[in-house]
Write a structure and sequence with these properties.
Elements (H helix, E strand, L loop, with lengths): L8 H5 L17 H10 L6 H18 L5 H26 L7 H18 L4 H26 L3 H20 L4 E3 L5 H7 L7 H28 L7 H23 L6 H19 L1 H11 L1 H6 L4 H27 L1 E3 L7 H11 L12 H19 L4 H28 L4
Antiparallel strand pairs: 1-2
Helix pairs in contact: 3-16, 4-11, 4-14, 4-15, 4-16, 5-6, 5-7, 5-14, 6-7, 6-14, 8-14, 9-10, 11-12, 12-14, 15-16, 15-17, 16-17
């Protein structure tokens, strides 16, 4: 998408590859001074998104009086799953500095193939789900092949894919154009199932595991970096981050338990975000993705198989879009010709960018998809509660997206001025 890319050396060598290497170099002055230095240098991280979420909650709670009620927040966590999974796939492609216009169509085609196989052809539903996801993966691999091996621009390849897979979706669904989910089937349960049938222990358990895993991962990273003679986060910062996460996680568990407990869509989305974040930050392949996004020629000279990385990224992205399509089908009760159309793709891209993934490649995190989708869905839900027209929703979402892109551009320029870009 842009030739203006950063040096890929940091993503390849730094264990915390999702942020600039300097982010992990905490000086003796302590966390407060490092935080101020990063802000002055334009490295804002997730701060704008978190502050935006807090502001959105305060505004709509003040206007409606019940935005923060447990049932409404539970619905938000369920509604973001399908779009959020597609947005995680978008993050992978954006990290390369590219764009994939086909993901909405891939989501619709995957849902159509799965539903037709399970409902009309009598295939076991679990097998149908697997075949649908494999179909989505094959679509992504095909896009990646034409882009990486043949040299066709990703924009053109995925635009062609968008048209082709939309046609396939229409063809597979046939004259009726819709296939209802099997009652009490696998796809039907994706959206409305709660772990343990509402048992409150599951939400508390997830919160405790999240905090414990976060603390353990940071302590292990600090020990490894110290042993290697590298700068590490001080114990005080680790304690502060863990405490903040504990407050959010435990408050979230308590809120969910005021309604129906821990929803399956939230668990799946969180699981995918955590897994993909680990892959990007802690594996050599993940570092190669950042390297390619930072600079293709430099990555190639460093020994990275650029074509293989690109094909793999488009395959992963399409597979996640297919999984998102199944959750959207579960949410609406059927797979139809409109699934994946409309504003699905634009919302997924907007969520990734609003959450902090750069459009210029080489910088971002799959957590940005979750945060960005929370912003979009919170705005949409709040405006629905005050009966605002859909046109108003689109305009506000567009303004938020523009603000996120402007902030990204200004942040990159500031980091270059500070010698960190």
């Amino acid at each position: 998408m842009s030739a203006d890319r950063t040096d890929p050396a940091a993503p390849v060598t730094d264990p915390d590859a999702q942020v600039p290497a300097a982010d992990a170099q905490v000086p003796a002055a302590g966390y407060a001074e490092e935080f101020r230095r990063r802000i002055r240098g334009g490295d804002l991280g997730p701060l704008p998104v978190v502050l935006g979420l807090v502001l959105i909650a305060i505004v709509f709670q003040g206007v409606t009086g019940h935005f923060l009620q447990a049932d409404n927040l539970t619905n938000i966590t369920k509604w973001i799953a399908g779009y959020g999974l597609i947005s995680v796939g978008v993050v992978f492609v954006l990290l390369l500095g590219e764009i994939d216009l086909s993901l909405g169509s891939v989501a619709g085609a995957c849902a159509a193939v799965t539903s037709v196989l399970a409902v009309r052809q009598g295939v076991d539903e679990w097998l149908a789900v697997l075949l649908g996801l494999l179909t989505a993966a094959a679509m992504g691999a095909l896009h990646g092949f034409f882009f990486a091996r043949i040299g066709v621009p990703a924009f053109v390849v995925t635009l062609a894919g968008m048209l082709t897979w939309s046609g396939l979706q229409d063809y597979v669904l046939g004259r009726l154009g819709t296939v209802n989910n099997i009652k009490d089937g696998v796809v039907a349960h994706l959206d409305n199932h709660f772990l343990g049938d509402g048992d409150i222990a599951y939400a508390w358990l997830l919160a405790v595991l999240a905090v414990g895993g976060f603390l353990g991962a940071h302590l292990l990273t600090a020990r490894r970096r110290t042993a290697a003679g590298l700068p590490a986060r001080p114990a005080g910062e680790i304690a502060l981050r863990t405490g903040a996460l504990a407050v959010v996680a435990l408050a979230g568990a308590w809120t969910l338990n005021q309604d129906s407990g821990l929803p399956l869509p939230l668990v799946v989305l969180l699981g995918v975000v955590v897994l993909t974040d680990f892959v990007l930050r802690r594996t050599s392949w993940g570092r190669q993705v950042f390297a390619v996004g930072g600079g293709v020629e430099a990555a190639r000279r460093a020994g990275v198989d650029v074509a293989r990385v690109r094909i793999a990224v488009f395959t992963v992205s399409a597979t996640l879009a297919g999984l998102g399509g199944l959750f959207i089908a579960s949410l609406q009760g059927s797979a139809d010709k409109l699934l994946g159309g409309g504003n699905v793709l634009m919302s997924a891209i907007a969520a990734a960018v609003i959450g902090g993934t750069s459009l210029f490649g080489g910088r971002g995190s799959t957590w940005s998809a979750l945060l960005g989708m929370l912003v979009i869905q919170s705005i949409t839900t709040g405006l629905d509660m005050v009966h605002a027209a859909q046109a108003i929703q689109y305009m506000i979402t567009g303004a938020v997206l523009l603000a996120a892109v402007v902030l990204d551009s200004v942040s990159r320029r500031t980091q270059k001025s500070a010698g960190r870009g």
